[in-house]
Amino acid sequence: MSTPAPQPPATPFEWLGGEDKVRQLVDRFYDLMDLEPAYAELRAAHGSTLQDARDKLFWFLCGWLGGPDHYQSRFGHPRLRMRHLPFSIGILERDQWVACMDQAMGETGVPEALRARLNESFMGTADWMRNRGG
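^ that's the sequence the OP posted. Answer follows.
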């Protein structure tokens, strides 16, 4: 008799490893954005400091991944598209955001199956955030 395969954790938040791992991912994402020339246009859209963006993405991702709703408890519904309308987001910015997050996931050891699942979701969301062509 064979042993059944272990089931993945109930939420992506648990699968990732909880708040510490989400913080690690977010910090690596913004470190890469700040360091890598390939993400220059994305970095330019974020202003002089990244601390506010780091905190907001961390709070948002915790809830979006199935963990605590830190973002919603502070700011209410995320209204992502509305909150991003002041920023010029085209295909280049979308692609840089997704590539930067994918690199961060790779460098922080996000399990490959979860990374693929998240990449698909991130691309869909990032594409929906575009507010200009090109």
